[in-house]
Amino acid sequence: MNSKEALEKLKGLVGEETYKTVLDALAGSTVYFPENYEWQDKSGRNMRLREDFYSGNYEVSDLAKKYNLSISRIYKIIQSRN
């Protein structure tokens, strides 16, 4: 879905007034809405991901599928110290 379609869908979901309020508050920003909108403990996920990687049981591509992340994101998490 492109940005124009997403904005039209947002307007239909929240109504004209709320739509204008959101635009005023976030104009010029880039906002990403994940498919899985449930809150995630990213630090815990990242720790488990690193443990999986260093166990030797998973390739990076396997981890990308398991955690539903891109391969480049997996590498960033593995390399991070947090």
Give descriptors for this structure.
single chain, about 80 residues, mainly alpha, 5 helices, about 65% helix
Condensed summary:
The chain has 82 residues and is mostly helical. The protein has five helices and no strands. It starts with a helix and ends with a helix.
**What's the helix count?**
5
Structural class: mainly alpha
Classify the beta-strand content into a percent band: under 5%
Based on CA atoms alone, the radius of gyration comes out at 18 Å
What does the model show?
The chain is an all-alpha fold. The protein is 66% helix and 0% strand. It is built from 5 helices and no strands. Helix 1 crosses helix 2. It is elongated, with a radius of gyration of 18 Å. The model has no long low-confidence stretch (mean pLDDT 91).
Helices and strands in order:
Blueprint (H helix, E strand, L loop, with lengths): L2 H12 L1 H11 L15 H14 L4 H8 L3 H9 L3
